[in-house]
Amino acid sequence: MGSRYIGVAERRDRLAVRHRLAAGARAAGPEEVARSLVALHGTDPATVYVGVGARLAEPGGTVRETERALYEDRTLVRMHGMRNTVFVFPSSLTAVVHASTGIAVAARARAALVKDMAKAGAPDAAWLAEVEASALAALARRGQATAAELAQDEPRLRERFAYAAGKDYEGVHTVSSRLLRVLGVEGKVVRGRPLGSWTSTQFRWALAPEHPELDVAGAQAELLRRWLEVCGPATEADLKWWTGWRVTEVRRALAAIGAREVTVDEGTAYVTEGDEDPVTGPAEPWAALLPALDPTAMGWQGRDWYLAPGLRAALFDRSGNVGPTVWWNGRVIGGWAQRADGAVVWRVLDPEGVPSEAEAAVAERAAALRAWLGAGRVTPRFRTPLEKELCGNP
After folding, report:
1. pLDDT of 105-121, one tens digit each?
2. Percent of the chain with pLDDT over 70
3. pLDDT category, 76, cuts 50, 70, 90?
4. Which of 280, 392, 337 is nearest to 13 (CA)?
5. Which band of pLDDT confidence, cut at 50, 70 and 90, is reported for residue 173?
6. Which three-class secondary structure string do you get for the chain?
7. Predicted TM-score of the model (pTM)
8. Domain count, the chain
9. For residue 283, what pLDDT is reported?
10. Nearest CA to 207 among 144, 147, 133?
11. What is the pLDDT of residue 83?
12. Does residue 170 surpass a pLDDT of 80?
């Protein structure tokens, strides 16, 4: 008997329920959202809050509750993860993320820093180790601090060195900017409370919470299992892209968790053991406005089953970052933006069109988002063609 075929309709049903987007599947708090999605993209701070708010049954307290989870209870942690990207993870998952993805990325990041400093004639690795130890000690004393504040305690953090001299992207880095990033990837520091509002990109730093050192292969199996529970079925290409691992690591993890083969339109895909049976979809049609870099829109490398190829030019920037998206019943139908006056505007791009009930549902979600944002203004860190056009900046 061949593997079971999971079609587009069922994949969209799984997405609606498991990604907490259908009305009956919404979550009670930010920790529940993060556990359900495994990781929230954290490169753009606003993504975390707007993405959480889109999935809560009662989104009114999203900012307050998410800040509590991130900066008071520390049940959520902002740290580097897959593909050397900043995410927000449940704190219970930090050891798994560090062992499965962080160690290898960290080794490359530190080697690159030492190499770049040597090329620039900057001090050697022993000097860097002294500065690092001093900076971590200062951070322990302060609790949280900006790079500038740490440099008051350890002035060598202000040292500058040239980067990529002679190339079109050459520049000058401070030791602090590069070293703190390396320490973040190594799991020694994490981003703390921002200097400004919840949309601010200027973060303080804090020592990372202690966690056990896990076996790499075991951690990879655990991370892949959790992600497949949320995003399966997924192809090997999807898994390799999302994790940033080598294909041999992906295959080893699939074997370790006893993943089951199924068939999707792209070919062979995988689900976790026991997840082969058909899934019941949401009881009611649903609409959602998701932020730029949302983990649902960025969840798979193969996206044709929920995002028509013809929409990509308008909704993605040149580096492959997705902008704000409008969803109807498990597929992207357009995009949205917030103008300077606070208005939330949107446009349907789907060439097949959408029913009137979809437009009404999207309008209702846009009005709710506008009310939720209040005086807040959300401008994506990575601007996309449609978002800029909707804002009046073609």
Report:
1. 888 889 988 888 888 88
2. 99
3. very high
4. 280
5. confident
6. CCCCECCHHHHHHHHHHHCCCCHHHCECCHHHHHHHHCCEECCCHHHHHHHHHCCECCHHHHHHHHHHHHHHCCCEEEEECHHHCEEEEEHHHHHHHHHHHHHHHHHHHHHHHHHHHHHCCCCCHHHHHHHHHHHHHHHHHHCEECHHHHHHHCHHHHCEEEECCCCCCCEEEEHHHHHHHHHHHCCCEEEEEECCCCCCCCEEEEECCCCCCCCHHHHHHHHHHHHHHHHCCECHHHHHHHHCCCHHHHHHHHHHCCCEEEEECCEEEEECCCCCCCCCCCCCCCEEEECCCCCCCCCCCCCCCCCCHHHHHHHECCCCCECCEEEECCEEEEEEEECCCCCEEEEECCCCCCCHHHHHHHHHHHHHHHHHHCCCCCCCCCCCHHHHHHCCCC
7. 0.93
8. 1
9. 84
10. 144
11. 86
12. no
Tokens of 78: 């902002």
Q: Is 332 exposed, middle or buried (0-12, 13-18, 19+ CB in 10 A)?
A: buried
The answer to the question of residue 99 being in a domain is yes
Residue 78 pLDDT > 80: yes
In a domain, 178, yes or no: yes
Determine the structural domain holding residue 104 and report its residue range: 92-207
Domain-embedded: residue 120: yes
* Best CA proximity match to 294, nearest among 21, 32, 23, 31: 21
Q: Which residue has the higher pLDDT, 341 or 394?
A: 341
What interhelical angle do 175-185 and 103-119 show, nearest 10?
160
Q: Is the pLDDT of residue 15 over 80?
A: yes
Nearest C-alpha neighbor of 51 from the set 42, 146, 105: 42
Alpha-carbon gap, residue 333 to 330, rounded angstroms: 9
Q: Is position 128 within any domain?
A: yes
Structure tokens given for 147: 């790079």
